[in-house]
């Protein structure tokens, strides 16, 4: 009886070890995907600021165009901080552009009563996307070229833009939302 209970306790421990390792892999994947997307969000914001006086380029920027999707380097850094390695793929062609990351833990599940676990590593996937938070309407034909469109962002926040005073521009988190996706 005691032997059976002891075996059951060790089995629960093995399951717990595997679950903890899987959680580590998922944490690493989530963090890496978000880091990659945040890196690109910042580049998109920089691109928008550089082109703020040319609203004809805004739509492409808000759709994820105009920048290299180079966030996988940041994903690799974050994975290493979470004791994992990653395979990262940029997807600027998605409806909401983003990244898909597969993270594998550097630490194995460990030794347990279940044979073969000492060499097993957990692998999990995550996707992060970059979603524009603002919309605008281009001025019609014959409109004053010195007037910029007003940005209307989430929660009804309006950003009236004055081409003669560009000191109060939206920040990256005002322009784009970055989140995990299925």
TrEMBL record:
The keyword Signal applies. Residues 1-20 form the signal peptide. The keyword Signal applies. Residues 3-37 form the Putative Flp pilus-assembly TadG-like N-terminal domain. Pfam families: Tad. Keywords: Signal. It comes from the Bacteria. InterPro entries: Tad_N (IPR028087). This is Putative Flp pilus-assembly TadG-like N-terminal domain-containing protein.
């Amino acid at each position: 009886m005691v032997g059976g209970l002891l075996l059951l306790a060790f089995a629960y421990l093995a399951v717990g070890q595997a679950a903890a390792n899987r959680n580590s892999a998922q944490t690493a994947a989530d963090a890496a995907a978000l880091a990659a997307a945040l890196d690109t969000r910042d580049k998109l914001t920089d691109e928008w600021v550089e082109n703020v006086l040319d609203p004809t380029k805004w739509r492409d920027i808000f759709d994820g165009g105009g920048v290299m999707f180079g966030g996988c380097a940041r994903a690799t850094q974050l994975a290493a901080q979470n004791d994992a390695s990653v395979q990262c793929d940029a997807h600027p062609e998605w409806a909401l552009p983003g990244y898909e990351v597969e993270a594998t833990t550097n630490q194995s599940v460990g030794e347990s009563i279940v044979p073969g676990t000492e060499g097993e590593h957990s692998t999990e996937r995550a996707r992060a996307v970059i979603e524009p938070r603002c919309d605008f309407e281009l001025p019609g034909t014959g409109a004053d070229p010195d007037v910029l469109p007003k940005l209307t962002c989430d929660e009804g926040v309006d950003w009236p833009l004055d081409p003669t005073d560009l000191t109060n521009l939206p920040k990256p988190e005002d322009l784009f939302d970055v989140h995990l996706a299925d």
